[in-house]
Each structure stands twice: as C-alpha cells, then as structure tokens.
Amino acid sequence: MKIAITGSTGQLGRLVVDKLKGKVSPENIVALARSQEKAAGLGVEVREADYDNPETLQPALAGIDTLLLISSSEVGKRAAQHKNVIQAAQQTGVKWIVYTSLLHADNSSLSLAAEHLATEKALSEAGIPFTLLRNSWYTENYTGSIAGALAGGAFLGSAGDGKIASATRDDYAEAAVAVLTSAGQQGRTYELAGDEAYTLSDLAAEVSKQTGKNIPYKNLPEKDYAAALSSFGLPEGLAQAIAGWDVAASKNDLYDDGHQLSSLIGRPTTRLSTVVAEALKTG
C-alpha cells in the first residue's frame, strides 16, 4: 500500500513523513511537493505536485492507495487547490483520502472554516472513502509570539477569556500517522484538540513564570489589534485575519474537551508549559 503526503516540505508534513517511516517501509511512502529540491533528505520517494498545476497531479498520484491531504497554506486559494487534488485522486484510483480540516469546521466562526467546509463537501461528492482530521490551533501559533511579547513587555490579542485547546504540530502529526496506519478509520471525523485548555492570560502567566518577568496579557478590540500587528510589519490583510481569528477564539471556537487527539496518539497532548520552555530555549 503506497501512502502519499501533500505538503511534505511544510512543518507538519515533514513530521508526518518522519513518523510514518517508523511505521511503514519508506519505499511505500511518497512525498508530494512543489519543489523536489526542498523535499530532498526526506528519505522517501519524492514526486512533483503543484496544487495550481493539475497536469502534475495525476502523475504524482499514480499508483497511490492512500492520500494524506494536508491543507494548503495559501488561504483564499485552498478550496480550488484541494479540489484539483481530489479530482486527480478520482482519476488515478486513490482508495482513501485523509484530510486535515479545522476543528468544528461546520459551526466555527473562524474565517478559515469556509474553505475547509468546501473541501469536505468536495470529498463527500468525490466517491472516495475519506477521513477528516479536524485540527484545532497549533500551540506554536501563539508561542511564536513570545519573543515579541518579551521585547514589548506584554502579550497582545483579541481572544479575551476564550479557551484555547491547542496542540503541537508533533501531536497532530502523530495522530495523522495513527489514522493512516490503523484499520477501521474510513468515514470517521475526528475533532482534534489539546487536553489542556488555556486563555491568553494563562499563556502570559506561564511565560512570566518561566522568565521571571511580568508579561501581562493585554486584550484589545479587533481593529486595534489588527493595527498593532500592521505596525509590526505584517501585511494589512494578514493582520486583519489574525485579529479576526483571535475574536473567534474568544468565542471558544478553538476549544474542545473530547480528548480525541490524546486517545488517538495514546498519550496526553504536549503541555503548554513544555512548549513555552522549548520556545524560550530556541529563542
């Protein structure tokens, strides 16, 4: 059984390929990437696969039994890109697609949800058995801001007291591998989130504890947070999107207490304190 992974050169994709090699013979793993050079060193077969160039997708999926469709990083282009991949999977006889969607995509207020729902609809119409891994936020999305918070003396955001049940990329990669390598997974939908929910005030408190500095969380109106992000050099559209995602987090759109992720990986998800310590160590 050959398993292909899209987005294999991305942060999540690389982790999946590496972990999958511990469960499946590397000769049965195919890394799909726009740039074959970037995929060098993965230790598996690499095939060119450009979401925006359907001509590359059929050859890339030839002989593939199972496809892990890791969602594209290009917000606004995802639905069309994913549809190209799904159509190529139909044409080449892929037998099962596992897709990384968004936590509670069917009722989330996150602006990202629409493209994930469009992809889920395309999968349901394609006639190929599929499994949905609806991932919550990466903890690294927030711990990546620690350096800036330390420099500025505060964490900024618009998430209020919203509970965030995030997990690490490593946790989600392990879950994907668990699904890809176990029986009875077709047709399932997993709502994947961390065991430990926290607010951004909790995150600020953890950073303060580990650094010995007083780093408070300052909650801002959405427009003010977007303006602050723009002042730090982020493109205006991205700044507005990030602020909007925080507002969604304030509504608990990134919270789930079903513990499906830890059940899949057979261990507790990585603790916030551990990820904070790692972020501080790596700078």
From TrEMBL:
<dbReference type="Pfam" id="PF05368">
    <property type="entry name" value="NmrA"/>
</dbReference>
<dbReference type="InterPro" id="IPR008030">
    <property type="entry name" value="NmrA-like"/>
</dbReference>
<dbReference type="InterPro" id="IPR036291">
    <property type="entry name" value="NAD(P)-bd_dom_sf"/>
</dbReference>
<dbReference type="InterPro" id="IPR052718">
    <property type="entry name" value="NmrA-type_oxidoreductase"/>
</dbReference>
<feature type="domain" description="NmrA-like">
    <location>
        <begin position="2"/>
        <end position="256"/>
    </location>
</feature>
<dbReference type="GO" id="GO:0003955">
    <property type="term" value="F:NAD(P)H dehydrogenase (quinone) activity"/>
</dbReference>
<keyword id="KW-0560">Oxidoreductase</keyword>
<protein>
    <submittedName>
        <fullName>SDR family oxidoreductase</fullName>
        <ecNumber>1.6.5.2</ecNumber>
    </submittedName>
</protein>
